[in-house]
Amino acid sequence: MRAAAKNQEEILHGNLWKAVLALAIPVIINSFLQTIYNLTDTFWLGKLGTDQLAAINLVTPVQNIVINFGTGVTVAGSVLIAQYIGAGEKKNAMSMANQIFVCATGFALVCATLCFLCTPAIVRWMGADGATLEHAVMYLRVVIWDMPFLFMVNIFSAVHQAQGDTVTPMLLNLTGILFNMFLDPFLILACHMGVAGAALATVLAKLLPAVVAFGLLWRKSEPVRLDTSLMGLKWEKVRLILRIGLPTAIGGSTMQLGFLLMSRNVFVYGSQAMAAYGIGNKVNGLITLPSNGLGSAVATIVGQNMGAGQPERAKRGYLISMGISVVFLFVGGMILSRDVISTAIVSIFSDDPEVISMAADFLSIMAFWCFANGVNNSSNGLFQGTGHTEVTMAMDATRLWVFRFATLWFCEEILHMGVRSVWYSVVVSNGMAAAVLFLLYLTGIWKNPRIQVRKHQGEAQEAS
User: Fold this and answer.
1) Is 453 helix (H, G, I), strand (E, B) or coil?
2) Does the pTM exceed 0.90?
3) Nearest 10 degrees: CA dihedral of 382, 387, 389, 392?
4) Domain containing 395: what range?
């Protein structure tokens, strides 16, 4: 953990450019690996047919709704642990890590069970029938059992990232990615398991890093580790987790529910449109990875500096991160939006000419405007780091349920743009959300943290 100690010193007292990059680069690589994880399924299932690809793209938002709700717990943990560390309260940081472990693990097991039981009804409600229905039910009922393993890795990442260590979680994720890249073709094609093979490969690939993460979190040499004596529920800490994590959970799940309804809207245009929508989203995710990584870096930098009583330094970290994100995404987006490039990329994942045409169009439009994600992710990191997760919750919900669906309705009903209504609803809603978040930053509400960590007094308290 020497690297983490060095990063912590850089975050609180050193060069913020170095701190931002030291935290963000491993997270970017980690996010890239996670995207490759998802694209691997898309690539191999694309070899089977459009129905299989459409089935996975249809039900992925269902899985994401549950995952995002639980992720609110680990996000809260990361913020709270970072603020404790910034205030020098490492004993309380360790206590909080154990509370996060108990809450997140229990949530994952309960939700995986409920989702397994409700899968057929959910998929029928989304409008699937025939082969797509069969593939979607099979995939979701298997893949949902990766949740306990995914949350174990997320807990490990939250604990280490809060301390300034983003390299170890990256290496752990790499293990799962490499395993998945072997398992996907083996189970999907060699074992002729189809979508069930893709789902099982995901579960098994998450199991390995989860076991490693669990073992590492018990090491006595870790400054923040698991300890059975600290796992009894401490309600003052549980209330803090809910106070900070619940808005993130609700916002993330509400956003994913919006994605689910968007998928339902796309499916109206057929399985080819559904396949194109999934391919475009996943490929576009590659170029926005730096923005996601920098947003995570902002949350850690802001959390530690606010805990140490250094709001101006927190502000500088936010502005540096946002500037890097916007410039990178603008340049990268201009390149990826060229038709010849977007077509060549999406052609990797499908042989269907209609799917390729629609996916390339969607990707070009999203890439051209993706610089707005730089503002969105950095601003979310700022508000999460100060405990203002109610802001991110409100914007997540508004971006999907107000901006996106209003734009979708206008483009479909007034402009009669067909499936392109979906494409433009994505970029317009992202741009509007970025503008609102930056205006909220300018109001300075983030300077009044929702939690206050008192040095040497042992507890974080809600700000009045």
Assistant:
1) strand
2) no
3) -10
4) 21-448
